[in-house]
Amino acid sequence: MSTPAPEFATRRREELFDGMVDLFLSEGFAHLTLDEIAARLRCSKSTLYTLADSKAHLVRSATVHFFRRAVADIEVRTAGVTGAREGIISFLEAIGATLAPASDQFMADLDAFAPAREIYEQNTRMAADRVRGMIDAGVADGDFRGVNAAFAADLVATMLTRIQQRGVRASTGLDDASAYRELAALLTSGLRK
């Protein structure tokens, strides 16, 4: 019996995680059993166990995979953007576009499952740090008035979390993509000299 070539195994692993992420984004994950996930991905349950040793670990790993994929997508969407204002707008709009496929059920499940929520929160902190860096650069270049960039980054992180938890949608009726655009417009307008 031969073992699969490493590149095939890696490609198959990526395909399974991509399929799992798409399934979870569409339907959420809390209600799915391992048997249902395996059936939907057209693989065996033992194949899933090669990816993780439990459903909890599988969901966490799929969440990590989703955010790696999202970061790569955001990088592509923001490549070549210059200037702090344009960078912030492009970055926040890219986050909105990347998260657009996430169903309400996925976001609710993500918020309710601590290991997945921690991954989201970690990515939110990284996004806020990136915005902070763009604000600092904009202030240094004279594009923005002098502001407390840490406060602005904290505001961004808070709003990203409220958008994720659907608080913004509930209080304003804005979908996520619109909320990210509004946040970008409000933030960059408030930073203008």
A few lines on this structure:
This protein is mainly alpha-helical and 193 residues long. The protein is built from ten helices and no strands.
Briefly, what CATH class of the domain at 60-191? Mainly Alpha
Q: Given the helix and strand composition, which structural class is it?
A: mainly alpha
Share of helix among residues?
Answer: over 70%
How is the main sheet built?
A: none
Looking at CATH, which topology of the domain at 60-191 would you report? Answer: Tetracycline Repressor, domain 2
Strand runs, count: 0
The number of helical runs is 10
Kindly, what is the distance between the CA atoms of the first and last residues, rounded to a whole number of angstroms?
Answer: 69 Å
Radius of gyration: 19 Å
CATH homologous superfamily designation of the domain at 60-191: Tetracycline Repressor, domain 2
Uncertain stretches of 5 or more adjacent residues: none
CATH architecture name of the domain at 60-191: Orthogonal Bundle
Portion in beta strands: under 5%
Tell me, briefly, the overall form. Answer: elongated
Describe the structure.
This protein is mostly helical and 193 residues long. The chain has a domain at 60-191: Tetracycline Repressor, domain 2 (Orthogonal Bundle), CATH 1.10.357. Helices cover 78% and strands 0% of the residues. The chain has ten helices and no strands. α5 (84-99) packs antiparallel against α10. Residues 33-52 bind DNA. Pfam families: TetR_N.
